[in-house]
Sequence to fold (180 residues):
Amino acid sequence: ILFSLILVYNVFFSTKSMLKEIKDKDFRIQTFVDNSDDSIFLLNQNTEIIDVNDAGKKLFELNDTNYFGMHISELIANEFVEEQTQFIEEVKIKKIAVTEKSGVTHTGKNFFIEIKLQILDNLGFIAIIRDITEQKNAALLIEESEKKYRYLFSKTPSFVIIWDLENLKVHEVNEAVLNK
Fold:
């Protein structure tokens, strides 16, 4: 009987210790997710939202009740919904993928997003979504500036030659040079 009591005592306290470890680990993970600057969505196998961190709620202007059961495609601009379906199928095959889309808030505001979607074995998906509007706008400004430069470079009547100053190798000439 003494052996049985010692065994029960050890099982009880080792189980209690394991539960505390699990609880501590869960707390650390939850703290990490809650304090992330990235929007983190937990999705079921039908890609419906089952949980989202505060950053995700803020980014998409969601409250604590209006996201549960919402399909992730509801956060994507209408013109990208079909592509999103294909993207999800790709993730099912590759296990993880990244794409850029136009997101839409719960109130209808559009912005650029990057979505990293990963399948969680038999659980659903985890989506990490970042607002990339500033980067996209900067890239568009650079592209626009490049087009203006190209136009001015090619259409100016003056000779324009771009060469390497070290070896004098010509890299580019404009139309005026070619037409003379």
Remarks:
- Strands lie at 39-43, 49-52, 96-104, 110-120, 124-131, 161-163, 170-173.
- The chain has five helices and seven strands.
